[in-house]
What does this fold into?
Amino acid sequence: MTNPKIKFAFLFFTFLSFLSYAQVKISGKIENNNQEPIENAAILLNPSDKATTSDASGEFTFNNITSGNYKVSILVLGYKKLIQEIEVKNVDLNLNFTIEVDVLNLESVVITGTFDPRLSLESSTSISVLNQKDIQQNYPQGTASLLQNISGTFTDTSAGEVYTKVYTRGISASAEDDMGWYYVSLQEDGLPVSLIQHSYYSPDLFQRADLMTERVEAIRGGSSAITAMNAPGGIYNFKSRGIQQEFGGQIQASRGFQGGDNAMERIDAVLSGSFGNDWFFNIGGHYRRDDGARDADFKFSKGGQLKFNIIKKTDKGSFKFYGKFLDDYTNRYTGVAATNWDNPTAAFGQDFRNTSLLMPDFDGSIPDGRNLANNGKINFNPSQGVYAKDIAFGFDFSREFGNNWSIKNNLKYSSKKANWQTSISNAFVSLSNPLAYFITGAQFPVGQIVFNDAQSGAEVARVDNSGILTGQPFQYISGSLPNDAIMGTSAWYKDNNSDEFMNQLILRKKTKKHDINLGSSLGYANTTHFTSGTFGFVTYEPSPRMLAVTLENPGQPTIALSDSNGLSNYGGLFFVNAEAKVLQLAAFANDRWSISDKIHLDLGLRYETINHKGSKDRFAPFSQNGGIDGNATTDYDNGVLTSTGDQDNFDYNYKYLSYSAAINYKVDENTAIFGRFSKGNKAPELNYYFNNFSNVPINQKGTIQKVIQTEVGLKLNAKQFAFTGTAFWSKLKDVGIANFEFDDSNNSIFYTPILFNSSDTYGFEWESVYTPFNFWKFSFNGVLQNPKATDWKIYDAAGSVDTSDDSVIDYSGNTLPFNPKLMFNLGTDFQKNKVSAFLKWQYLGKRQGNVANGFELASYSVFNFGTGYKINKNLSANLMVTNLFNSDGLANFFGDNSFGANANGATPEFVAANPDDSFIVFPVLRRRLLLKLNYSF
It folds into this structure.
């Protein structure tokens, strides 16, 4: 009889031999429809629970796989999920997969507007995604310019790269030109670019897109009420590059031209890869020099940024250290004069395409009203424009624990500086208007006024204004000024600094039916703010010149009404010196409840508290005979506004509860419908304190605005057609409105009392892509809406500080201004073999220029075109033209062409009574051409 031990050993080794024979290797390659390899695709093999990623050649390998039936799942950003069943026998397998582009990213995992990563198709939000290709098809003109490609997003980029407006669904009332991002959160990698906003200090100052930007995720309204910090109107999240398995990068050199010979040069670069033991890195940025889209005598933009991240991937999570260094100069355009209210035409020799009306380059020195005791000076040169500096570092940490618990924490520290040296306003001021002389701060500048070219010193004109106080027009003694006028403008100096810290912590628990997220957000900002305004004597012509101005009455001493650069009334127009600390805390909870495989309920709450604590200096004109320099013949330094030593303090808390509820029904693997109701809140920003309460106690806090939104949406992802559509209703309540006014009786600037208003907007936004062939697609997105100023009143100060003639005007029921009833993007995109091309039509419908509905901005279209050729494996060239046909559309309206006027002053009655008046508009930027050479390795 056989020994049992020998028999067992025989069977054991036979079994091991069988296992050895049965364990095979599965290898494969992943390509897209253009036979291009796909890197970083996630490949899952079930039920083995094994996972891997594809390399730069699109190849992957699984080792030691036993015989059986499996499902291979392939997930990659920007492509549709692919699931294929395979049978493993006793031989190695070599598989090839072709995956289709996910044209609307409905099967991509999104993190914006949710507390947990989920597929866009399964998300109960109106979300849009721009990938790297979308980003590269845009002229590098700033953040808002890129976002106008997103469905339902209104953007105004007519002033340039900054000083832009972005909003959706009629949530716009406080999103004014100097605070155009009021309701939305501009984010980088899940945290706000900046925690605070106030006049001329918006997050677009500190954000630039380049090759380090992997994609943009955008949420319109809805869940932003519970997922964003004080931003119920939407989220625009710029995500940086993530894990790259193979070492490689790109270098991109760009050369552009705008209009005639205005040049732009830019270089972008990025380098990515790994350095062993699951460590990965990305580093990149850009540098540019830009003459600008309109004519100026200086470089309009220059500078750039550097960004990086270092990622450690572990079995249970990941850790990322990231940073940014931005050092950039840019500028913003002021408006252009027009006549003919019904069909605006450029006036006074100006041009909708070329005129900028900015002060020319010069080096000035202005007394610093904060520090006159130590002879403090402000160096002013309008060629600097807006200098933005941002140094930021952060840590993003995630880890999974047992029993389906996980934690994620993202924190960031940043130090920001924004310094404005540019001009504000460019109004027509007739030489017959007393303002042309009395704004200098001089007591009686009456008689012979001499205007000299500040650069050459040559006399340009000599006028007699001796009848000005009795209503008589001026008389030329010699020479003349263009258009018999000067420009009502100010040397605008602002100095803002802010140190900010923010953190978001999310604790997640998954059960069979629930995905619960609990967390907190913390934000702290310590900021200082200074604004000074100095009048500038400038010619009123398309290429303005500075004027040195004197009063030269016979037999009397010559009085200098300006310095040698043309600056007058030093620091006498504006003075704000303030500091503030902002502490923002929030706690939130969200549950995604799987009622069934097809139905998910999404419930979320957010309790937020914000504390504003700070002070604002009181001010008064510097009182000394002869002004700052003690010289009675220099009138330009007699009215410097300076701190009195007294301060008005504020310390207010804002507390509110926001909530959102949604349901998602997945009809099938390619179709879902959802509904959502949200109630959000918007606490005041710091401009409430900085702009109001001039030399009076800050004795009341601002009002929290309410944002209520209801939406119902459909998401469809068929083989050749993808579509999302959302019907919405949004209501904005308790909107405080105050206007900027100028009192020409005493040359003072003030804000009117605040009135509270509300608006309603109904609409439908959509996004669709049709792909008849894998190399050719058509896209169409936009919004159709009806924006109404439901309950709206405006305070009319009648042009003076005196309240006896004031009144309140009721505009309830009018169309909400600056919200088109129709806007869309229609485009086609072709890519086959080595050739690519695209054509886009951007349409913006009619918009009311103010709540009085006194002036309507006409609709306009802009066409963008691009083509590219892949020269070899590494090198490609692209040509892109923005505003192909040089469209002359008008994007914005600033009201009557007079110093201190605003859009609300152009009522129907005013327009009817002043048919020949000129007014200020902002035309769209002219044609821009860009050639790009891209080297990838």
About this structure: The helical segments are 4-22, 132-136, 143-147, 224-227, 435-438, 687-691, 908-913. The longest strand covers residues 641-668. Residues 11-21 have pLDDT under 50 and may be disordered. Residues 4-22 form the longest helix (19 residues).
